[in-house]
Specification:
With about 130 residues, the protein is an alpha+beta fold. It has five helices and three strands; from the N terminus they run H-E-H-E-E-H-H-H. Strands 1-3-2 form a three-stranded mixed beta sheet, sandwiched between helices. The longest helix is centred in the C-terminal third of the chain and has 20 residues. The protein is globular, with a radius of gyration of 14 Å.
Length: about 130
């Protein structure tokens, strides 16, 4: 299901011919990656590592990058949000994909709104697609 939904999302976003890797990992790995690459010594729900420079759909390689999702955080968030685990992991994967495409909610309030708007549009589109 994740692969099919991701392919639909990538087609919608204009990057269907690109690749990414997905890692479902533990809090421990996400904390280690977060500490190493973002200087934040805590686990997080998702991290994205672009393969090359990002921005305005200018891809320098066929590989977009890596998305690493903490499965244990996704389980807790799904419970708290009363979502299925599949829906939560899909959301986190899409969030990471948008980061690989150059969206960044940490730069400014305007960028945060832009990314959230794109997430909502993407989820609405996927709701119209066959599962």
């Amino acid at each position: 299901m994740l692969k099919q939904r991701l392919q639909q999302a990538m087609e919608y976003l204009g990057c269907a011919d690109k690749e990414l890797s997905l890692v479902l990992a533990s809090d421990r790995l996400l904390q280690e990656l977060n500490r190493t690459y973002r200087d934040q010594d805590r686990p997080t729900n998702v991290l994205a590592f672009p393969q090359g420079p990002v921005g305005d759909h200018e891809f320098t390689t066929p590989l977009l990058g890596d998305v690493v999702v903490s499965l244990s955080i996704a389980v807790r968030e799904a419970h708290d949000l009363q979502q299925s685990l599949e829906d939560r992991v899909l959301y986190l994967l899409l969030h990471g994909l948008l980061h690989l495409l150059g969206y960044d909610h940490d730069r400014s309030p305007a960028d945060r709104r832009r990314m959230h708007r794109r997430e909502r549009m993407l989820l609405a589109y996927l709701a119209t697609c066959s599962p």
